[in-house]
User: What shape does this take?
Amino acid sequence: MAGIETIALDRWAGPFPSAEQSGALAALERGDVLFFPNLGFALDDTMRGLLSPVFGDGAAKNISFDPASGMLRGTRAAGAERERLVAMMAAFAAAAAGFVAGLLPGYAAALERARTSYRPVEIAGRVYSPLKDDTRLHVDAFPSTPTRGRRILRLFSNINPTGVPRRWQIGEPFAEFAAQFAPKLGRPHPAAARLLAAVGVTRGRRSAYDQLMLRLHDGAKRDLAYQQRAPRIDFAFPAGSSWVCYTDQVLHAALAGQFALEQTFYLDVAAMADPASSPLRQLERLTGRQLS
Ligand code: SIN
Ligand code: FE
Assistant: This one.
């Protein structure tokens, strides 16, 4: 089973002790979730006023902010409310980026800050199609955003104001998961990848790696037998805590909870301390093919 590494840090800005830094790096790369029970993202009064699902758009799971383009999506908020949402997400993004760079200094130069999300909708009881259903165990792979092997590192904070935890399940190690699905992975289709890029479905071309990761994501979510029998642990992230993991590697399912902030980062495999532990290199070993 993937593990939980509990780290007692309680502030977003470094410097951090080197024992915490090296422990965090090793745990993260072996596929554990780093859990920070004392690292809460403090909300001011303006931010507390944004704690309601009415700020969503009724359709998207999350409100997302893209720091590169300044685009805010998934909300019907306008005017001053929209500005407050952007301000809250930008403040969280800055705190998250500072924290990750301070905790994982070996990553800092190579880390790309990607989307920030705010998740104001209760997970339990939401109804989605199987592939969008994050209550099923999965590794993250996004159809519209190929990574071509880069890692997806995410930091979550539970900002629930009434003490409600965010309940996850965490599954087996990536190697064991991928080995079971290997017969279903098949060969990637270069022509399909070119077509999707040409018609604008994907931002940049899907590599062979992206195609296999999507097959793993979709294969796991669609496989009801796997969903029922796969080993897992339950873990409740308390309100006022934060956690970090490679969601392209850690099998996870989010079962319940409301009000979280999340920051995504991308990282080149070459910037890892142990690139061989990446899904890219693991899948290359499993399939005997070069995938990047
Ligand atoms: C997910 O990445 O599957 C959802 C995690 C969450 O919202 O807690
Ligand atoms: Fe996910």
About this structure: Residues 4-285 form a domain with the Jelly Rolls fold (CATH 2.60.120). Residues 119, 134, 140, 156, 166, 247, 252, 254, 260 surround succinic acid (ligand 1) (CB under 6 Å).
